Amino acid sequence: MSMRLPRGRRRSPLAWTTAVMMASLVVLALVGPLVWGAAADRPDPAAVLQGPSAHHPFGTDGLGRDLLARVLTATRPSLLFALAAVLLGAGPGVLLGACTAVLGRRGRRLTAGLINLLLAFPALLVAMFLAVVCGAGAAGAVLALAAAGVPGFARLAQTLAAGVAGTDHLASARVLGLRRHRLLWRHVLPHIAEPLLLSATTAAGTTLVALSGLSFLGLGVQPPGYDWGLLLSQGLDRIYADPLPALAPGLAVLYAALAFQLLGEVLAGSAARRPPAPPVPSPAPAPSGPAEEGLVLQVEDLGVELPTPDGTIRPVRGVSLSVRAGEAVGLVGESGSGKSLTALAVADLLPYGARVSRRTLRLLGADLAALTSRERDRHLATGLAMIFQNPASALNPTLRIGTQLTETVRAHRGASRAVAAAQAADALRRVALPPELLRARPHQLSGGQRQRVMIAAALMVRPGLIIADEPTTALDATVQRQITKLLTDIRRETSTAVLFVSHDIALVGEFCERVLVMYAGTVVEELPAGRLADGARHPYTRALVDSVPDLAADRGQPLRTIGGAPPDPLTPAPGCPFEPRCPHRRDGCAEQAPPLAELDAGHRVACWHPLPVAAVPERATAS
């Protein structure tokens, strides 16, 4: 058994102390009975009840056995019994509490009532009562403590499972008709496992103390067996004459309990401070390309790899883009095309375990690959701002708006509280919100107001680039128009560049100056926004434009859609990724993927047979 400290906590003195303490307990549990077991069980009538000496540092007991050897040998049973009680209590408790997320209304109410009833009785009194009922002995004490720990684990699991019960992925699994046990094992428990493991770690320390207490009272381990609690009980009779025989097992209990508590503290602190989206850096990044004058963002050959149970997928492959100061560039495509992952890769916000590769990634002229981790975090925090699709989840519901607006400038700009508050009030005025909202909390604002607050937060650091990831998707048409107008005004007043990510090609065409169309993780066309309607040359771009509803169209005809489905990222085809859905495909399109080639100034397309400007492609409706 070994413990690997989380990265980022390895230099913490608390983490090192905990590692040493846990390692010492593990070593003693493994080698204690082998090294000191014989001395611990060997009686010596000539050395009965002796005090501490050179031969017996802790003294001897009533049969002349060495107490130091008995304390060290008792490490294994004391730890094993405590861990067994925790595991036996955590298993049923977690299942009882977690099942409330998958049961029906009546079953959920009955289970919640049962948990509340069990919690009404003090755990220690329940353990003592059950230990008497089960009979004195190690097995009875372990079962009693396990049963007493079930309600606590059940309540924790119930609380955590309540946060999973209302998620979209669990609702989708219910619609698919999955049985309750599959919902529990695949969709509930994996999402609540980490806090439960942390709780079990700290519970091991309290269970060890409780188990020692039962042995001290004669309800736990019985002679000739022994643990720390029994040794403490045997040494208590002579505590006034020789205190060390009683203090030694007591200090051992305290040491082990403290080690488990510190382990839980270290693991919990590591989980709380873990970056929400740390991408795994490439082992050997390619040398960066030359910087181009006037570019706020320069990306060349960006790739993203994500590990999955079925293998590694590449949802973003070979993406290159650039954004100039004051320019609005749209990133558009169907869901799953890789546009949001591209934006998150630029912002260093990819999911945990993702791997990023790039030839060039420059923000405001700085090569991000050449910066240290701290320098990169500071440069991203001050040079780039993100506006997310759902401001309700992006804003902390427990903090006031003013606190969330000012924390960035206070942390990275060194602004005082008063100066930061004044800047926050000015930022709210710029997005047409009253400064009085600084004292409000997110739930008191409407969806449009929350999105304006996100824009105000982005303006606080005066970034050179704003990445807006679907910022208007959850808003109605009127508020959408207000948000895009606000972004346009900000861009013109401050020369801030905007990378606008959306699946709405009509909105992108109105708001942006240049558009990059993504499909299956690659850029298939780049063109000026003014040429979207009549100048798109890639069949996929033309299909997206044709799918926009037209008020002048015949309402008796079905809306135009793109037939087929995007390719499976686990099994990418060697040819053009759009070839299976393209009504203009030819024999050679399935053999090799086309490069992104320049047709004319500002217009690039990845297609072996670009459509002529005047062509109207046939549209195949989805079956």
Automatic annotation (TrEMBL):
<dbReference type="InterPro" id="IPR003439">
    <property type="entry name" value="ABC_transporter-like_ATP-bd"/>
</dbReference>
<dbReference type="InterPro" id="IPR017871">
    <property type="entry name" value="ABC_transporter-like_CS"/>
</dbReference>
<keyword id="KW-0067">ATP-binding</keyword>
<feature type="transmembrane region" description="Helical">
    <location>
        <begin position="115"/>
        <end position="147"/>
    </location>
</feature>
<dbReference type="GO" id="GO:0015833">
    <property type="term" value="P:peptide transport"/>
</dbReference>
<keyword id="KW-0547">Nucleotide-binding</keyword>
<keyword id="KW-1133">Transmembrane helix</keyword>
<keyword id="KW-0472">Membrane</keyword>
<dbReference type="InterPro" id="IPR000515">
    <property type="entry name" value="MetI-like"/>
</dbReference>
<keyword id="KW-1003">Cell membrane</keyword>
<protein>
    <submittedName>
        <fullName>Putative ABC transport</fullName>
    </submittedName>
</protein>
<dbReference type="Pfam" id="PF00528">
    <property type="entry name" value="BPD_transp_1"/>
</dbReference>
<dbReference type="InterPro" id="IPR013563">
    <property type="entry name" value="Oligopep_ABC_C"/>
</dbReference>
<dbReference type="Pfam" id="PF00005">
    <property type="entry name" value="ABC_tran"/>
</dbReference>
<keyword id="KW-0997">Cell inner membrane</keyword>
<dbReference type="InterPro" id="IPR027417">
    <property type="entry name" value="P-loop_NTPase"/>
</dbReference>
<keyword id="KW-1278">Translocase</keyword>
<keyword id="KW-0812">Transmembrane</keyword>
<dbReference type="InterPro" id="IPR050388">
    <property type="entry name" value="ABC_Ni/Peptide_Import"/>
</dbReference>
<dbReference type="GO" id="GO:0005886">
    <property type="term" value="C:plasma membrane"/>
</dbReference>
<comment type="similarity">
    <text>Belongs to the ABC transporter superfamily.</text>
</comment>
<comment type="similarity">
    <text>Belongs to the binding-protein-dependent transport system permease family.</text>
</comment>
<dbReference type="InterPro" id="IPR035906">
    <property type="entry name" value="MetI-like_sf"/>
</dbReference>
<dbReference type="GO" id="GO:0005524">
    <property type="term" value="F:ATP binding"/>
</dbReference>
<dbReference type="InterPro" id="IPR003593">
    <property type="entry name" value="AAA+_ATPase"/>
</dbReference>
<dbReference type="GO" id="GO:0016887">
    <property type="term" value="F:ATP hydrolysis activity"/>
</dbReference>
<feature type="transmembrane region" description="Helical">
    <location>
        <begin position="79"/>
        <end position="103"/>
    </location>
</feature>
<feature type="domain" description="ABC transmembrane type-1">
    <location>
        <begin position="75"/>
        <end position="264"/>
    </location>
</feature>
<dbReference type="Pfam" id="PF08352">
    <property type="entry name" value="oligo_HPY"/>
</dbReference>
<dbReference type="GO" id="GO:0055085">
    <property type="term" value="P:transmembrane transport"/>
</dbReference>
<keyword id="KW-0813">Transport</keyword>
<feature type="domain" description="ABC transporter">
    <location>
        <begin position="297"/>
        <end position="545"/>
    </location>
</feature>
